[in-house]
Amino acid sequence: MGSGKTTVANLFADLGVTIIDADIIAREVVAPGSVGLQQLVEHFGSEMLNADGTLNRAKLRQIVFAETAQRLWLNQLLHPMIRQRLLAQAKAAASPYAMMVVPLLFENGLECLVNHTLVIDIGKAVQIRRTIDRDHVSQAQVINIIDSQISREQRLAKADDVINNEGDVESLKSQILALHNNYLKLSEKAQ
């Protein structure tokens, strides 16, 4: 959260890499008229909907990060739907390798879906500031969300590769290009 996953993914996409974004898929599975949204409303009530019939994400986030049991229920509902779409999009990828952008990859045991993991790393203070600025939420809520995830140290220990995203854009692009060239070589060996 707040690490720059989308920015990094967009830069890989500029290099022709197929990007499969779990956040986009997560929005699709709870779009108006979807089974996911219908089940959310049945569980939490119609107050989870905005006036236009879309999911009130801020309200849902508030509930699930305050109550572990509700977060677990939500994960059990949505994760199978999201996983199915992730795999279908990966299978349809046209580039030499595809990149899945998956927040909470390790927390949800989804690293088994990929051959290689890349972590976008930033310090906690930067992460908090970026998330507050982007989402207009309280510092307490951001810290609560961060604390519900594995630690930075655990995440880094599990990563095959790490991009440090605290520098300038040129540094980021340089790291991405080096990784892209390595991933192309890895994909050639895998075929």
UniProtKB/TrEMBL annotation:
Enzyme class, first EC level, given as a word: transferase
Subcellular location, record wording: Cytoplasm
EC number: 2.7.1.24
UniProt keyword annotation of Membrane present: no
Entries under Pfam families matching the protein: CoaE (PF01121)
One annotated GO molecular function: dephospho-CoA kinase activity
SUPFAM superfamilies in alphabetical order: P-loop containing nucleoside triphosphate hydrolases
Catalytic activity: 3'-dephospho-CoA + ATP = ADP + CoA + H(+)
CDD domains, sorted: DPCK
UniProt keyword annotations, A-Z: ATP-binding, Coenzyme A biosynthesis, Cytoplasm, Kinase, Nucleotide-binding, Transferase
Gene3D superfamilies named in the record: P-loop containing nucleotide triphosphate hydrolases (3.40.50.300)
InterPro entries xrefs: Depp_CoAkinase (IPR001977), P-loop_NTPase (IPR027417)
Entry binding sites for ATP: G2, S3, G4, K5, T6, T7
Annotated pathway: Cofactor biosynthesis; coenzyme A biosynthesis; CoA from (R)-pantothenate: step 5/5
Main function: Catalyzes the phosphorylation of the 3'-hydroxyl group of dephosphocoenzyme A to form coenzyme A.
PANTHER family listed in its UniProt record: BIFUNCTIONAL COENZYME A SYNTHASE-RELATED, DEPHOSPHO-COA KINASE-RELATED
Record HAMAP family: Dephospho_CoA_kinase
Family: Belongs to the CoaE family.
Protein name as catalogued: Dephospho-CoA kinase
Organism: Shewanella dokdonensis
Lineage of the organism: Bacteria, Pseudomonadati, Pseudomonadota, Gammaproteobacteria, Alteromonadales
Name of the coding gene: coaE
